[in-house]
Design goal:
The complex is a heterodimer of chains A (584) and B (232). With 584 residues, chain A is an alpha+beta fold. Chain A folds into 4 domains: 17-130, Immunoglobulin-like (Sandwich), CATH 2.60.40; 160-275, Immunoglobulin-like (Sandwich); 291-412, Immunoglobulin-like (Sandwich); 467-580. Chain A is built from 9 helices and 30 strands. Chain A starts with a helix and ends with a helix. By secondary structure, chain B is an alpha+beta fold. Chain B has 8 helices and 7 strands. In chain B, the strands form 2 sheets. A 5-stranded antiparallel beta sheet of chain B has the order 6-5-4-1-7. Classes of the chains: A alpha+beta (584), B alpha+beta (232). At the A-B interface, β25, β26, α3 and α4 of A face α2, α3, α5, α6 and α7 of B.
Chain lengths: 584, 232
Amino acid sequence: MKRLFVLIALLMPILLGAITVTASVNKNRVDLADRLVYTIQIKGEENFDVSEPQAPKIDLFSFVNMSSSSRSSSTIINFKTRREYIRTYAYSYVPLKEGSTSIAAQRIRVGNKVYTTNSFTIDVIKSSPSPSQSNPSSPGGQAITDPDIPWNSGRMTGNTMLLASPQRQSVYKGQPVIISYYLYTDQMVRSFSLTEERDFPGYGKSVYEQPNSLDYEVVSHQGKRYQRALVKRLVLLPNEAGELRVPELSGNARIYEFGYMNQKVRSADAWLDVLPLPKAGMPAAYSGAVGSFEISEDLSREEISLGEAVTFSLRIAGKGNFNQFGNPHFPESDAQVSSPVAVDKLNAGIEGSRILYYTIIPSEKGSYTLPPLSFSWFDAQSGSYRTYSSKARQIKVKNANVVSYFSGLLDSGKPQTLRPMLSRASYPPYSQYLRELWFWLLVVLIVIGTGCAMYISLHRIKRMREPQIYAKMMADRALKKYLAEAEAAARRASKDFYTLAENGLMRYLSEKFEIALGLSTLQKMELLATQNIPDALIGQTQHFIDTCQRHRFAPQQPTTSDLERDMEQMKSIVAAFSRLGGRR
Amino acid sequence: MKYLRLILILLGLLGSLYASEFEKLKMAEERGTENPDLYYNLGVTYWQTGHSGMATLYFLKALNLDSAHRLARENLEYAINLSQDRELYPQRLFLVKVFLSAYNFMNLNRMAVLCLVFLVLSALSLLWYVNYDPDKERGLPGLLLGITLTLLFTLVFFTAVKAYRRSNNKQAVLIESEAELREEADSTARRSAKIHEGIILQIRKRDADWSLVNLPDGRSGWILNQYIGMVN
């Protein structure tokens, strides 16, 4: 059962989406003159949202300040990029009085999940000239609390050194060799920073591995127990035979012994024996490859039309000096063969695979024999040269057809190499017109503009083709417009009805029969009489206008029945005029 | 507080100066920037570090935003030509290639501008047709109106198709060095095909852990989601 809990605890970060939340304190026993730093650290493989946790309330302590930091790092291991995002919140407290207290477990919300930290017990003691740190803990400080480490808390001094450890002592010229640099110590080295890397003649080099933190293991060195952590791994590619001195690394170790101090550390001298490559048995086509390789080949097609291309690929996989040998070439033949295009999947340039692609275009129809391709290398394990020769392949070349001819035209610009990166100072968001406001405004403007233009055009056409109907339509529209206000006043039982009705009717008539508005009522009636309008209608109109004028200047309000009657009269007059048609 | 902010900004600037090109590109992507050149450069960087699957994925992302990105298309073709599964891609006829070239050249922005132009032309043709002298034969304005309207509707249709395909892009790329397609969404089910890094897949159905995909040659099978990168 206990094991199950341990397993669940170990799997928790994976189950919770690789987010880990840890809390730590700089010390569990704090004297009154010291400070307590409580740290919450959140780690995740993806960026996360977290609001700043509140400073926990701790009895016997007074909160001083808080600092936060965030960083991200990425490492490429086995061709996989792994990112890590770390956010740290550090809270400082000063002790107020002696005693024992505890920091409760904190609940931290990251995204939609809540994580709980562990709780701590803190003892506050009197100020003392000799510091007493019993069990300091911090994220990543596991080696310090490990009971197996040969660190003696009572000792004031110790030994810290940097040692270079070659993978093998004797290598061939060109054979890659890994040099590991380890920090050996029996002190509390909390961090180590490299300051210098001194090189010597006789090799090329690349970085194989450089850990971000000190991961200690307990080892025995010269009869003593040490804790050791890898600092760096370099790959050396010797280019001269003889004795070779490996690079010398220097750095600063930050050691904790009742306070922090820095100690400069330099790697001890280390040498390699570099053997020359044997002359005996060296193939004519040898181009400098040293290592342990496996070779395979592939041909894309064995039957093509004249003008088409086939691709031959040679895969070189294993461990060796990939960056120090030339690529093999096909012997001359009746076909165009391109220079090889190399695609590498290499770690530190020494292990992985390289695929060489050759594009072959036969120049004649018939049967084309692809000549064997040879690759030679020096196998350091067996101490002898080896050669791989590809099989002679037959490619059937058919007559060119129309499709292949035109396909060739289209494929004439087919890339033979990868196009390079573009030089860009910044990457503004790509503007997508369909999501831009201006685009849709333009569309709306065009549509509205077209609509307006169509409206005007249709009116113009109607006016030209059917002038009488058009004039009636316009007058009716004017009637609606001018007498609408009068109708509204009648509904309100307002005396304003008469003013509005008279004005509206006059404007309607003046628009319909082109009568000037400034004329008197009598003059208007005379003009109407000249336009073949029935006398009865003119009389009715004259009577309605007289009624309007009488009511306008009458002191009393009109009754509702008066208004209803006059409204009906106005409507019958307008309807009669509408039936007459207009001059236009 | 003001000075602290200034110092933080300066530190941020210094940090970004010293960050590697790849880190810069990734940071820009993580900020949510959608830019075809950014995706293209990420693709080239991935290719140079031997990640042909990721490179193909980012070239496709660049083309999803801008189908007329010439360099991204050339590098995609280059990556396909070098992939182990290149034989699975169909050989297209000449006319199909011509059509696809034209279709790709007309990216969404160009289509949108062309739609606007044809909308204006259609409006002008319509007005010309309506206001044409009624005593004359309306053949020419009618023909012009028909042509512009046909082209406008065709363009609108293709623009809508392109916009839909961009926002619902079902393409995915195998980012592991190799993987096996299964007949069912189960790692013990029978294997239907073995595919290699960089192959372009079409997602037909997507579950929590498995996706039903189509290979370029039309075969289909189930693959674990963790092996593939989605273009969208």
